[in-house]
Amino acid sequence: MKIHYLKKMAEIVSLFLFVPSILMAKVPKDLYSPDGKICIRFVLKAGQPYYEVVYQKKTLIQPSPLGFRLDEAPPLMENFSVTDTRSDSFDETWKPVLGEDKTIRNHYNQLIVTLRETSTLHRILILIFRAYDDGVAFRYSLPEQPNLKKFQIISEETRFNFAGNYTAWWIPADYDSYEKLYHETPLSKIKAVNTPVTMVTPDSIYLSIHEANLTDYAGMTLKRVKRSASNFECDLVPWPDGIKVKTRTPMKTPWRTIQIAARPGGLIESHLIVNLNEPCALKDVSWIKPMKYVGIWWGMHIGKWTWHEGPKHGATTARAKEYIDFASAHHIPALLVEGWNKGWATWWTKKPEFSFTEAYPDYNLNEVVQYGKEKGVVLIGHNETAGNVPSYDAQMEKAFALYEKLGIPAIKTGYAGKIIPKGQHHHGQWMVRHYRKVVKMAAKYHIMVDAHEPIKPTGIRRTYPNFLTREGVRGMEYNAWSAGNPPNHTTIVPFTRMLAGPLDYTPGIFNILFDKTGKHRVHTTLAKQLALYVILYSPLQMAADLVENYKDNPAFQFIEKVPSNWDETRVLKSRIGHFVTIVRRRGNEWFLGSITDKHPRLLEIPLDFLNPETRYVAHIYADARETNYFTNPTAVEIGQYQVTAKDTLPAALDGGGGIAVRFSPVRGKTEKSLQSIQYFRKEAGEKMKAFIRTSS
Ligand code: NOJ
Ligand code: CA
Predict the structure, then answer these.
(1) Which stretches of 407-492 are DSSP H helices?
(2) For the structural domain made of 489-497+524-536+554-696, what CATH number should be given?
(3) CA distances to 199, 221, 587 from 217, in Å
(4) pLDDT confidence bin for 241, thresholds 50/70/90
(5) Strand 589-596 relative to strand 658-665: parallel, antiparallel, unpaired?
(6) Domain layout of the chain by residue ranges
(7) Residues 6 or more apart whose Cβ sits within 8 Å of residue 401
(8) 135: which of 53, 256, 310, 472 is 20 to 30 A away, CA to CA?
């Protein structure tokens, strides 16, 4: 009787356990952000998983399917039932080694849904959803299981069915490059995009789609689904054989991220991407430091010097010493020297071969390093591979060991050109592995990394903070030899590419009209170049011009003083593609950068971010009355005024112009007697009249 009773109970319990999962299959699961504004909803519809995103009762993403198609195995996207759901919450505050803010709160609610196929294979797929106050994310987890061991993904079926034909800022999808100009169009005008792709709904809600923790997986691009206006599907970057991801269980995909904010600046202030990465994997991080650097670099891009040896060779011992002297005198702690190593003559051949340890005869590596040591300037080693990854792979460890021995604490890598072996792409799984290998190996030898032609950042800097920065953007170099970057480029980049992580844009060209033929120029004023040091975050930040163009120019003081790492960041009023103002704090000093597109603009910027108890000196570097974007872009008005948090800064920006300000607490008699900001205001109206007259 007793046994019978227990058996009956067991049946009831199992029935009980079973019934809710069936029920759950019909009942959507809502996961809310801690502030309750954002909801990501999981739904299982006819055996297929979907998600949906709602912001303050407005649907942003309509039900969108999830799953995979596999090679030589049935797809993992249908015939599922829910076998388990769990929810939990997490709240911690952590300190990044380097970053835009000194502390970061990682606060989310989580829902983990376990799905099991009802068909013969009974494979298990786990979906992990997270809701933060600044967006949502989800990833797939495939645990070890009998019917899924080694497998190949031919398509990740994740979709983003946007609830409207939102206005988007995007660059076209490309498996090898992010060096592009942004478009602003409705979603329906897009074919395929790289991420981050940023958009705004008709109700002025801003969202950006990207990915976090891209580890041993292919990079994601998004393709518009045929015959739909605003449905997008994940299109992973393939291997040469067309397979997208070669993997085995247990595995987890990168997070699919949707940053959401009520104002554009909220996207920049968000920490969603880094929060979705693993904590720092390095025990000792004392050697990881932010740095500014000058370089033997721009000279090659404008054709004054060459990378390869010969009469115009840029990387000579003498020039490196001259650059070190300048850096040392101006508190710039590092120097990049490109074209120092053997192999540049092979760059444009089918099989470029560089040596990463042997210098050209006119460049004495040891002597330069030694000279730098005496002057307090370190070298940044340059490793251009031109895409020949196997050759770099073979030399890497030996090269890094040499750099560590010499005391070279950082490298800039490069992958210009097609990847060898043929058919591999910069953004495919094979290269994702390579970029990670480089950063791990570099950590072993206490080397910081700045990757050019990289895989996009996905927050890996949290785990490997020696991955200081990277390119992956159409940077300054384009102004040297192409139609260049139009004035609105850097008013979009902060809201798109920069959401992914730091960028080595290489600002700071002072000789704006460098090309006497008039064919090329930098499409900004000089004041805007200064503002970019605050707008664009990079813990490794370049002063990109030839040092001769900095000598005796008082505007260089701003570059000397501006930090490349921050305690606090705030984005003030901005409009994507038109203007942006960012303020960042380091210690008790604040820095402000404000830039505009091609239109002159008068911005009234309240200084209420300053400490209300403190009086500050505003060291202002602004477009001057005589600044003219076309004929006199280098004129800068430099002045010092007293301000408090109650003041408003009248920023008169020329078309393509900007303003850069350093706010330091008032010290000493001279500073105490400085005039008030009203004197600067007087000039603003007059300047605007001049700017409007000359802009066309
Ligand atoms: C492309 C990089 O982006 C650039 O900075 C570098 O100078 C060239 N490749 C040569 O390595
Ligand atoms: Ca590049």
Answers:
(1) 429-444, 477-481, 489-492
(2) 3.20.20.70
(3) 26, 13, 39
(4) very high
(5) antiparallel
(6) 10-275, 489-497+524-536+554-696
(7) 445
(8) 472
Q: What is the pLDDT of residue 1?
A: 36
Is 52's C-beta closer than 6 angstroms to any atom of ligand 1?
no
For 680, residues 6+ apart whose C-beta sits below 8 A from its C-beta are: 618, 620, 639, 641, 649, 650
Tokens at 512, concatenated? 């704006």
Distance, in Å, from the CA atom of 159 to the CA atom of 686, rounded to the nearest integer, reads: 52
Instruction: Assess whether the C-beta atom of 414 lies below 6 angstroms from ligand 1.
Output: yes
Residue 24 in this model has a pLDDT that exceeds 80 = no
Q: Which helix (H) or strand (E) holds 127?
A: strand 124-132
Query: Does residue 647 line the site of ligand 1, with CB under 6 A?
Result: no
Q: If 0-12 CB within 10 Å is exposed, 13-18 middle and 19+ buried, where does residue 571 land?
A: buried
For CA atoms 547, 652, 475, 256, give the dihedral sign. positive
343: number of CA atoms within 13 Å, CB side?
22
**504 pocket-lining for ligand 1 (C-beta < 6 Å):** no
Q: Which of 477, 589, 637, 686 is catalytic?
A: 477
Structure-block tokens of residue 202 = 């008709």
What are the angstrom distances between the C-alpha of 624 and each of 99, 248, 581, 688?
A: 33, 61, 19, 10
Q: Is the pLDDT higher at 160 or at 693?
A: 160
Q: Taking 80 as the threshold, does the pLDDT of residue 362 lie above it?
A: yes
Give pLDDT tens digits for 429-462: 999 999 999 999 999 999 999 999 999 999 999 9
Tokens representing residue 534 in the block:
């605050």
Q: Active-site residue 477, yes or no?
A: yes
For residue 370, count other CB atoms closer than 10 A to its CB: 13
C-alpha 489/C-alpha 392 separation (Å) is 33
Q: 49: Cβ below 6 Å to ligand 1?
A: no
**Ligand found nearest the CA of 297:** 1
Q: How many whole angstroms separate alpha carbon 681 and alpha carbon 650?
A: 6
pLDDT > 60? residue 12: no
Instruction: Select from 477, 478, 482, 542 the residue to mutate for testing ligand 1; criterion: most ligand atoms less than 8 Å from CB.
Output: 477
CATH fold group of domain 10-275: Beta-galactosidase; Chain A, domain 5 (2.70.98)
Contact 571, 594 (CB under 8 A): no
Amino acid found at 463: T
Q: How far is CA 132 from CA 93, 99, 463, in A?
A: 14, 20, 20
Residue 93 backbone zone (phi > 0: left; psi -120 to 50: alpha; other: beta):
beta
Round to the nearest angstrom and report the end-to-end CA distance of the chain: 95
Q: What is the DSSP letter of 450?
A: E
Positive or negative, the CA dihedral 597, 602, 604, 607 is: positive
159 lines ligand 1 (CB under 6 A): no
Which of 178, 293, 384 has the most ligand 1 atoms within 8 A of CB, as the residue to mutate?
A: 384
Minimum-distance ligand 1 atom for the alpha carbon of 475: 3
Q: Which residue type sits at 473?
A: V
Q: What percentage of the chain's residues is helix, strand, coil (to nearest 5)? A: 25, 35, 40
Nearest atom, ligand 1, residue 307 CA: 10
Distance CA 153, CA 145 (A): 17
How far is it, in rounded angstroms, from Cα 104 to Cα 325?
38
The tens digit of pLDDT for each residue in 176-185 reads 999 999 999 9
